């Protein structure tokens, strides 16, 4: 038994037929339309997601203004770990920026998978450690760079986002207003 997710997992660890069956049974793949809110501030996260197709953004609302802090794209996990693991209300939102095809894993099914496929827990731990390191690096880069440097970094490292994400959302991610992003883009284009 195989699906898009098991094919991906097979890149990291060989799966037996029984393990593939466990993943297919425990992690359904669902389609979500652009604009779908997967998690709202104040809601306890009951699921983690893995992006097969599409883009999800994480954002906060501060003083009535959206502040985007991350984008997740194909082959990336989307999870509000503290809310999901500790059963506490989330302080942020997850929104589908595009139509998305996501593998959806509930907490209970995750625990079942850990029992049925013990090696999966190690894969998850490695993934969380990797994500944590990347988040630390992203935060350090954000704190020590100018908005123009952040935009150049996007151009160098995440060019795919430039055409996928609405400009006002990119501006929020860079920590500027949309009109400031327009000026940054013009300055860079004229160089």
UniProtKB/TrEMBL annotation:
CDD domains assigned to the protein according to its UniProt record, in alphabetical order: CAP_ED
InterPro entries documented for this protein: cNMP-bd_dom, cNMP-bd_dom_sf, RmlC-like_jellyroll
Residues of the Cyclic nucleotide-binding domain: 11-114
SUPFAM superfamilies in the record: cAMP-binding domain-like (SSF51206)
Pfam families associated with the record: cNMP_binding
UniProt xrefs under PROSITE patterns: CNMP_BINDING_3 (PS50042)
Protein's name in the database: Crp/Fnr family transcriptional regulator
Organism: Marivirga arenosa
């Amino acid at each position: 038994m195989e699906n898009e997710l098991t094919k991906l997992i097979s890149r990291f660890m060989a799966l037996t037929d029984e393990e593939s069956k466990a993943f297919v049974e425990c992690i359904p793949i669902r389609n979500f339309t652009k604009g779908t809110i997967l998690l709202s501030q104040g809601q306890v996260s009951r699921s983690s997601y893995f992006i097969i197709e599409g883009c999800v953004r994480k954002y906060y609302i501060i003083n009535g203004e959206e502040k985007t802090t991350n984008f997740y794209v194909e082959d990336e996990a989307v999870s509000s770990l503290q809310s999901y693991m500790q059963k506490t209300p989330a302080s942020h939102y997850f929104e589908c920026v595009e139509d998305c095809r996501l593998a959806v894993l509930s907490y209970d099914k995750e625990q079942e998978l850990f029992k049925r496929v013990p090696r999966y827990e190690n894969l998850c731990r490695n993934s969380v450690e990797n994500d944590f390191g990347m988040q630390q690096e992203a935060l350090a880069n954000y704190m020590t760079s100018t908005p123009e440097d952040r935009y150049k970094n996007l151009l160098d490292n995440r060019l795919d986002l430039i055409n996928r994400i609405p400009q006002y959302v990119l501006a929020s991610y860079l920590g500027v207003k949309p009109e400031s992003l327009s000026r940054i883009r013009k300055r860079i284009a004229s160089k």
